[in-house]
Amino acid sequence: MSAIPVYIHDDGEGPAVVFLHAFPMDAGMWDPQVAQLHTDFRCLRPEFWGCGESPLPADDHSLDDFAAVVLRQLAALGVQRFAVVGLSMGGYAAFALLRQARERVSHLVLASTRSEADASQARASRQALMDWVRRDGVEAIAGSMRQRQLSPAALANPSLVARLREITARCTPQGVIACLEAMSVRPDSTAELGAIGVPTHVIAGGADVVTPAAEMRSMAGAIPNARFSLIADVGHFVNLEAPDQFNGFLKELLEPSR
Ligand code: MLT
Questions:
Q1: Best residue among 21, 29, 89, 176 to mutate for probing ligand 1, ranked by most atoms within 8 Å of CB
Q2: In ligand 1, which atom is closest to the CA atom of 112?
Q3: What is the CA radius of gyration of the chain?
Q4: Residues 33-87 pLDDT 10s
Q5: Domains of the chain with CATH codes
Q6: What is the DSSP letter of 258?
Q7: Of 12, 38, 35, 22, whose CA–CA distance to 179 is shortest?
Q8: Exposure check for the chain: N or C terminus, fewer CB within 10 A?
């Protein structure tokens, strides 16, 4: 397991909330959440190796390696117990955190994600994406992925698209390749859903073609007492396309812990 520390953005004071970013993104994707929550919560945003301010990956790093490093660093920061908010790849990392330290997690938000491992077709697509990044750089694949990740309304919103480009530009080719590798070897977490014993909110975008709402609803059904919400007409990045609704859901889940 890699001992290289990752960078963790640490803003605000109060009960701790750990935000886990998607792919190919960094902690900046959570700015609209931190802007509203940092007055009442300590918002911690780790970044995967090679993304944002984290150092380049030195080797193959699994999402379980990432979770282990994050858990260790959180403990060093005095954060023992925390809520977890993970979107897409961040959701896969949330499952890894739960696997290693279920007792440290107080609340869980799973947005636009899935519990299943990659099927062989998805693994092959990731290999093709790795080759594409090596050849043409990060923006080439990110620009193409955005066409599927964003709803039609978001794609027509130049400031949102520019913001996503800015976030992606902070991901290095090495980081993007490391994320693709880590996602392609992640284990299936479906059998663990029934053991999630903390207040959980599963949030889906009605126009998300990457992680369709029907799949998310059925994942929520396998988590004891989980709440499921569908935000109509928004794409994969529900927190960016509908920040007010998303933040409202976070506050409803987390407020009682203050
Ligand atoms: C993400 O948004 O993190 C990705 O779509 C996840 C994936 O490629 O499986």
A1: 89
A2: 2
A3: 17
A4: 999 999 999 999 999 999 999 999 988 889 999 999 999 999 999 999 999 999 9
A5: 8-257 (3.40.50.1820)
A6: -
A7: 22
A8: C
